[in-house]
């Protein structure tokens, strides 16, 4: 994805939809900062070219090779933070696994068959019970309101 020399003053909001990008060029733009989370979900990004004033997202630890020349900085080979020898700042809770979520970013995914807050619930979500209760409550409330409010309706 070549966004070089596009006169970008900030990261375009549509960039979040390009998470499948492998190569991204943002050089020759008057960018002053990269907001945290700008590259959330960019797990396939292997080469990122930035203006010299900007640092690689996630820091140099998130990339295998960081080079700088007179006008640009090149970040190559995104590292998997889950395979790092450095202790994670927020370890994943029990019953979950670490997964990369962009340069220097990670997410914790619940392992099968766990789900819910901190992956503490085992099994599947009780969809039939939830739908039954929600449907019954909706129909009951609708009938109650129809019965109590129909006398206020004008008859012709």
UniProtKB/TrEMBL annotation:
SUPFAM superfamilies: L domain-like. The gene is Atraid. Residues 108-119 form the EGF-like domain. Keywords: Membrane, Transmembrane, Transmembrane helix. One of its GO terms (biological process) is positive regulation of osteoblast differentiation. The chain crosses the membrane at residues 125-146. It comes from the Eukaryota. This is ARAID factor.
